[in-house]
Design goal:
single chain, mainly alpha, ABC transporter involved in vitamin B12 uptake, BtuC, two-stranded antiparallel sheet, 17 helices, 4 strands, 71% helix, globular
Length: 430
């Protein structure tokens, strides 16, 4: 490097640049260097991220691969088309609830009421539609609206009154479970007609093979266009962006996974409607979190409430809206679960539903400490939990063992999250 060629103005006027030290080196964005070095640069960058605690989805992806390999080795029916199709439906109801939990965790808070809200939503639907003859569409919208209102109510007490989220949602867990029992009345269980819209949510399959392959094609093309257009926008303003070769590699990996899944599903009954709904919800909320100002406000609020407030963010409004989303998604998951069981019962929303929804978000990579996570955590985490449950059932293992293994996986996820945050702080990135 050479010294600055511009000399100071002797008259004391402004200068173009400050003098540069003799041996100074111009700072270059490391992402640019990585892409100039090719594959070796990417390997170095990957190692640097691991050392810095930026693990991303790597632990859970490796975990899923190991779980699937073990169960397939123990029983070759695990990766059969039927079992994978059943797994895709199994994870949908709790997965939708977990999407709402992801939003709450991004704030660094917790919502213990989602299980009871999901059961109450199913009860409202069944009582209105079956017992009182209300049109099914209106009953569904009423149940979803009730979930959103109850979530907003939790958010109001938390954001405006100052009641801790843990306490207000714990109260909601008890209160809405009691209200569900009151709504169902003495019958206890209300069946849902097999020919109803709600029942079709988990019973319907797109049997035409073009449906699954078409969905895979839409996913691959959509992913490529989103990555390509984002890269062009970043390059146009001088921000480091992904080169075309990297985008093509990422797209190729997604294409392999998507078309393999489509092939497997077509080997059984076809593409399940429930799984399509889950994926559409994930894409929508992922866009909301990563591509909108609202999503950035949620992330900022989870990182530092005081900093978010000083930046002009309406903290109370964001908190209330996040809990409303959690309530809405809890109601959505409750309807899917009612569809699968073909009933609304007093056991709806109880058991290990709440723990699985929270565990899925954490296992999938959303931090318990707020400010870091992805909506796709719900899918990855549910794949882990659902795969363990499905594999254990195939092997005839008792529920007690399943709970212990799931608990151990959850603990491992929290430990990894804690160690990752500590490593990032040590590296000056936390």
């Amino acid at each position: 490097m050479t010294t600055n060629t511009h000399t100071p103005d002797p008259s004391g006027g402004p200068v173009d640049t400050a003098p540069v030290a003799k041996d100074a080196v111009t700072a270059v964005d490391p992402r640019l260097l990585v892409r100039e070095e090719g594959l070796q640069g990417y390997l170095k960058e990957f190692g640097r991220k691991l050392r810095g605690g930026d693990l991303g989805a790597l632990p859970v992806v490796v975990g899923i691969a190991v779980i699937w390999a073990i169960f397939q080795w123990k029983d070759d029916a695990f990766l059969s088309p039927k079992n994978l199709s059943d797994l895709s439906i199994l994870i949908t109801g709790t997965g939708l609830i977990s999407v709402g939990i992801v939003f709450v965790l991004l704030l660094g808070e917790i919502d213990l009421s989602v299980g009871s809200v999901s059961g109450l939503a199913a009860a409202i639907l069944a009582v209105l539609n079956i017992n009182h003859g209300v049109p099914e569409g209106i009953a569904v919208l009423t149940a979803l609206a009730a979930g959103a209102v109850l979530g907003a109510l939790h958010g109001f007490f938390f954001a405006k009154i100052g009641v801790p989220a843990f306490v207000v949602t714990l109260a909601g867990l008890l209160a809405w479970n009691g209200l569900m029992l009151q709504v169902l009345g003495t019958t206890g269980t209300i069946g849902i007609d097999d020919d109803s819209f709600v029942r079709s949510l988990t019973a319907h399959y797109f049997t035409d093979i073009a449906a699954a392959y078409g969905a895979a094609t839409v996913a691959v093309v959509g992913f490529f266009l989103a990555q390509f257009l984002d890269s062009r926008r970043r390059a146009a303003v001088g921000i480091p962006s992904r080169p075309l070769a990297e985008i093509l590699v990422r797209t190729a990996v997604l294409a392999i996974l998507a078309y393999a899944a489509a092939w497997k599903l077509n080997e059984y009954k076809g593409l399940p409607l429930a799984f399509v709904i889950f994926l559409v919800v994930l894409v929508f909320f992922d866009f909301l979190v990563r591509r909108t100002s609202y999503g950035r406000k949620v992330i900022a609020l989870g990182g530092s409430v005081e900093a978010a407030r000083r930046a002009g963010i309406n903290v109370a409004a964001i908190r209330i809206s996040v809990f409303a989303i959690a309530g809405f998604m809890a109601a959505s998951g409750g309807l899917i679960i009612a569809s699968k069981t073909a009933s609304a019962s007093q056991q709806a929303g109880t058991g290990n539903l709440l723990m699985e929804a929270i565990a899925a978000a954490v296992i999938g990579g959303t931090s318990l400490f707020g400010g870091r996570g992805s909506v796709w955590s719900a899918l990855l985490g549910m794949l882990v939990i659902g795969s363990i449950s499905s594999g254990m059932n195939l092997l005839g293992v008792s529920n007690s063992i399943q709970y212990m293994i799931t608990g151990a996986v959850l603990l491992a996820a929290v430990v990894i999250d804690s160690v990752s945050r500590r490593t990032q702080r040590s590296a000056g990135r936390g």
